[in-house]
């Protein structure tokens, strides 16, 4: 079984996908973490003008398992290095490059193959696994998503402002939605879930009820 969970920044899709993976015992693929990894490489090199084949020559490894996706670079697991807004911006800029996105789609399909997966990101249900058995699109208002990201980064001890985060989220939403190729939008057969006024537990139980119904 393949499950696609897509949605905009800070909508809560990683949280839901990870919990769903754990409840179902199915490996979790956080596609945004790989975009962030290459965004991190581009950030360190100060440019996104990097051919996909050159980026994929990096010494990296991806491990997907129940409840987790891990990225290793030169043998070291990267985590906090990938979570900042600036790396997210570089990831989003790379995401606008069709050749890079096509290479990423190919990479994710080869990584998962015919195995079960809970795939989470922006284009899992539209392009990576269009044949997924279940497709969910997790969203929330920009203000609520900025609030969630603000609280998340403050808990990590980062000195951020709500206003800056809201602006970054709105800019990234616009960029993701207005890409000439592969514009970010829900799959036509995705179930859209607005979580603005919903707790994580409510969203998870609702999705599990949909899966168990079939
Ligand atoms: N329904 C919810 N209500 C309140 N807070 C939530 C909800 N869902 C997730 N959160 C919190 O919001 C923050 C962002 O969630 P998460 O990282 O899952 O979003 P995301 O869509 O994966 O973000 P991104 O794609 O930018 O990585 C986390 O701190 C998470 O605990
Ligand atoms: N399938 C994907 C996943 C991510 N992106 C871009 O990467 C940025 C960072 O991802 P997060 O999930 O950590 O926010 C994101 O803003 C997207 O622009 C993508 O294009 N496709």
Automatic annotation (TrEMBL):
Kinase listed as a keyword: yes
Catalyzed reactions: dCMP + ATP = dCDP + ADP; CMP + ATP = CDP + ADP
User: Record's GO cellular component, any one?
Assistant: cytoplasm
The alphabetized list of GO BP terms reads:
pyrimidine nucleotide metabolic process
The UniProt GO MF terms for this protein read: ATP binding; CMP kinase activity; dCMP kinase activity
- This protein's source sits in the domain of life called Bacteria
Provide the primary localization.
cytoplasm
**Where does the UniProt annotation locate this protein?**
Cytoplasm
- Listed Pfam families: Cytidylate_kin
**What keywords does the record list, in alphabetical order?**
ATP-binding, Cytoplasm, Kinase, Nucleotide-binding, Transferase
* Domain Cytidylate kinase residue range list: 3-212
Entry EC no(s): 2.7.4.25
List positions binding ATP: 7-15
InterPro entries on file: Cytidylate_kin (IPR003136), Cytidylate_kinase_dom (IPR011994), P-loop_NTPase (IPR027417)
User: What is the top EC class of this enzyme, as a single word?
Assistant: transferase
- Name the protein family: Belongs to the cytidylate kinase family. Type 1 subfamily.
**Entry-linked HAMAP family:** Cytidyl_kinase_type1
Q: What is the name of the protein in this document? A: Cytidylate kinase
Please give the organism. Answer: Thermocrinis ruber
- Upper taxonomic lineage: Bacteria, Pseudomonadati, Aquificota, Aquificia, Aquificales
